[in-house]
């Protein structure tokens, strides 16, 4: 994730419409792991940490500013949701699902299966 400093200073909108600065990759990565440690149950934390680490590793060499800003923006919004407990029971936005590539949809399906395998006693709600 080698981006110019000006990209890190670009603004994004929070859920309540306020403008906020985009965090650089390493502070965002640390924030995500801290949020998992503080707000998630152990089983979910382990799965979440593995996923965050693999995604950041996979995007380490991204040079395309559009992809970089989108990646960091989505992870920052995710961190805010985890810290605010607004993620519980939330469904994915259909617009975001429609924009996903086949590879991303496959990853989402694998994540869903991993969550279901870790929680064999609970029935998925749909």
Give the helix/strand layout:
Layout: H1 5-8, E1 11-13, E2 19-21, H2 25-39, H3 42-58, H4 65-84, H5 94-99, H6 102-118
Antiparallel strand pairs: 1-2
Helix pairs in contact: 2-3, 2-4
Task: List descriptors.
126 residues, mainly alpha, disordered N terminus, two-stranded antiparallel sheet, single chain
Protein described:
With 126 residues, the chain is mostly helical. Helix content is 63%, strand content 5%. The protein contains six helices and two strands. Strands 1-2 form a two-stranded antiparallel sheet. The protein starts with a helix and ends in an 8-residue tail after the last helix. The model is unreliable at 2-11 (pLDDT under 50).
Low-confidence stretches: 2-11
Shape: globular
Strand content of the residues, in percent? under 5%
Helical proportion, percent range: 55-70%
In short:
The protein has helices at 5-8, 25-39, 42-58, 65-84, 94-99, 102-118, and strands at 11-13, 19-21. With 126 residues, the chain is mainly α. The protein has a two-stranded antiparallel sheet with strand order 1-2.
